[in-house]
Amino acid sequence: MRETVRSEHLKFYILKFLLRGEYTGYGLMKAIWEETGFWRPSTGSLYPLLSKMRAEGLIEEVEAPVGRRWRITEKGRNLYIQATQAKRKLFQEMQRAMLVFAKAFDRRDLEALAERIGQEEGERSDLAGLALLFLELHDALWSLPPLSEEGKREAAIILKRARDELRALKERLQEARGGLS
């Protein structure tokens, strides 16, 4: 099942990049690696998938001065749009599953997180790059060794400073827009 999931992820990653322009197979591998920072699809998974996607009419080969390039078709574009619309429903289902898990195992921290996730209505494409930084902040916090009381105080000071600076930024941005939120 894990390979199926990865294959589907890779399929939509390919479509996403081909929406931006034409790529070689190597160019797709490199773009995915650069964007994720950890996942570089193997040639053994990428090239058979490209052939399958071509057979399904989602992409087409284009002759280029150097090698082959891939281009998305109208069918591929439509599939990506449909998947983008379906992801909202999937996200809601994941949020509900997290909430049930949190309640079943009395994890109030996860319950609060699930409820916060459910509050987000619209997508914020302007925050896409910052979301990764937020996750890195989370990872940095959880990677700390067990904290003494002093360590907890230091971590709280760092997190509160970041929170306060973001609140100050919000106020400055609202003032610059004439008080609009």
Tally of strands: 2
Largest sheet: 2 strands, antiparallel
Radius of gyration: 21 Å
Note the total helix count: 7
Biggest sheet: strand arrangement: 1-2
Series of H and E elements: HHHEEHHHH
Would you identify the regions where 5 or more consecutive residues have pLDDT less than 50? 1-5
Tally of structural domains: 2
User: Which fold name is given in CATH as the topology of the largest domain?
Assistant: Arc Repressor Mutant, subunit A
The span between the termini is 44 Å
CATH architecture of the largest domain: Orthogonal Bundle
**Average of the residue pLDDT scores:** 84
CATH class of the largest domain: Mainly Alpha
**Helical/strand content category:** mainly alpha
Query: Strand-residue fraction?
Result: 5-15%
Task: Estimate the global geometry from the Cα principal axes.
Answer: elongated
CATH H-level superfamily title of the largest domain: Winged helix-like DNA-binding domain superfamily/Winged helix DNA-binding domain
Q: What is the helix fraction of residues, given as a range?
A: over 70%
What's the helix and strand layout?
Elements: H1 2-20, H2 25-36, H3 43-55, E1 59-63, E2 68-72, H4 74-104, H5 108-119, H6 128-142, H7 149-176
Helix pairs in contact: 1-3, 1-4, 4-5
How would you explain this protein's 3D organization?
By secondary structure, the protein is mainly α. It has two domains: 2-72, Arc Repressor Mutant, subunit A; 126-181, no CATH class. Helix content is 72%, strand content 6%. The protein has helices at 2-20, 25-36, 43-55, 74-104, 108-119, 128-142, 149-176; strands spanning 59-63, 68-72. It has a two-stranded antiparallel sheet. Strand 1 and strand 2 form a beta hairpin. Helix 1 (2-20) packs across helix 3 (43-55), helix 1 crosses helix 4 (74-104) and helix 4 (74-104) runs antiparallel to helix 5 (108-119). The protein is elongated and about 60 Å long. The termini are far apart. Residues 1-5 have low confidence and may be disordered.
